[in-house]
Amino acid sequence: MPTTDMTTAERLAYFKDLSDSSHGASPAFFMTDSGVYLLAKETQRPCEAVRFQLSWFRVEMTRAGSGSSARYSFTYAPIESTTLSVGPRDGRVVGSVPPPPKGCAGTLSVVYVGEEITEGDLPDGLNMPGGSLDWSLVTLDAGRALSAVFKPPAGASSC
Fold first, then answer.
1. Of 48, 79, 118, 145, which is most buried, counting CB atoms within 10 Å of its CB?
2. Where residue 20 falls among pLDDT bands split at 50, 70, 90?
3. Residue 121: closest CA among 97, 99, 143
């Protein structure tokens, strides 16, 4: 699919409409704690690389309470924003691996198209990962956000 002359709105729609080559309904452009990936169907794969933006935020965590009733408050600080490209081949995008959490600070990674994501676009609260994952997906209200991942520090329970 030709993508060079796409407007910002067209690129956003293109990324949102991509389907996973093996699972059909799963997004083909997605992020995990190890970076951004493309796994598009052959008929949807871009003819050339498509630009997107990626921003990382440090998430300072402060714990209130103890045990299962413990809650955290979160404060965001920008780390870095960059423009990257994905495609035409599948795989992980070079340069998309987030900085690791450190101390009592986790990392929030946000993939988007268009205007830069600001602290005002970020959620008031974050869910801690559950099950076997040590990261969680985050939903942003900003329509230009495509995917977001929160990775808390390993010792979050002592923060």
1. 145
2. low
3. 143
